[in-house]
Amino acid sequence: MRLTLNIWRQTDAASPGGMRTYELDGVSPEMSFLEMLDTLNEELTRRGEEPVAFDHDCREGICGACGMVINGQAHGPERTTACQLHMRHFSDGETIDVEPWRAAAFPVVKDLVVDRGAFDRVVGAGGYITVPTGSAPDAHATPVPKPAAETAFEHAECIGCGACVAACPNGSAMLFTSAKVNHLAALPQGAPERESRVLRMVEQMDEESFGGCTLTGECATACPKGIPLFSISSMNREYLRAVRKGGEAAD
């Protein structure tokens, strides 16, 4: 396959960026998208040019590090991560646009690499359990109803890739935050901090540069792990419950 690649190049966060065009030949349909970028970088290195910087780690669709916008879609034309997207989904001679996540909360570091530290700060505000539990409990020592376990597992699949933010026209992080909140809210281990968790995480989310949610639904469509849109409504109920409970306690 021969491809024309329009790729966003930006030296650093303080420098202006722009699209640059590269011609790449000999691309196998069995390559992953990242392997194709590796091939391009090998060619650029041979020519003495700066290779394209992009994030990646496990390359198994688990870590979420490989986020990029491909032809205007988060992670590309398939509902998967960029590392699991294969070149057989593109045509010989096709022109492909490759850009970093477009969100104020994800400033560009270099080329296709963005700083997603805002996600870490949201999780750091309450996406954990601090209540002492003693030594490791025996298996099945804490019964978890099957519906609650299924809800927890469904939301635990979020890998924090940021596709939801990149796809949202408002740059909202509601789907990501709701996945983290609902995961722990469904489990008995998360019950002691249930109210404080959602209040702290939503507050931190609002302090970052994320936009507001208008339930457009693009986030759920782009999510490679299928976090459902109703997760946002569930978090809203958790938030209102916490606010109401806090008000009752104050009274």
Notes on the structure:
With about 250 residues, this protein is α+β, with helices and mostly antiparallel strands. Helices cover about 35% and strands about 10% of the residues. The strands form two sheets. Strands 2-1-5-3-4 form a five-stranded mixed beta sheet. A hairpin with a 2-residue loop joins strand 6 and strand 7. The radius of gyration is 21 Å and the shape is elongated. The relative contact order is 0.13.
Write the layout of secondary structure elements.
Blueprint: E1 3-9, E2 18-24, H1 33-46, E3 69-70, E4 73-74, E5 95-99, E6 108-110, E7 113-114, H2 117-124, H3 146-156, H4 163-167, H5 174-185, H6 194-207, H7 218-222, H8 230-250
Parallel strand pairs: 1-5
Antiparallel strand pairs: 1-2, 3-4, 3-5, 6-7
Give a brief description.
The chain has helices at residues 33-46, 117-124, 146-156, 163-167, 174-185, 194-207, 218-222, 230-250, and strands at residues 3-9, 18-24, 69-70, 73-74, 95-99, 108-110, 113-114.
Oligomeric category = single chain
Radius of gyration: 21 Å
Overall SS class: alpha+beta
> Strand share of the residues?
5-15%
Please describe the structure with a list of short key phrases separated by commas or semicolons.
8 helices; 251 residues; 7 strands; five-stranded mixed β-sheet; elongated; alpha+beta; two-stranded antiparallel ribbon
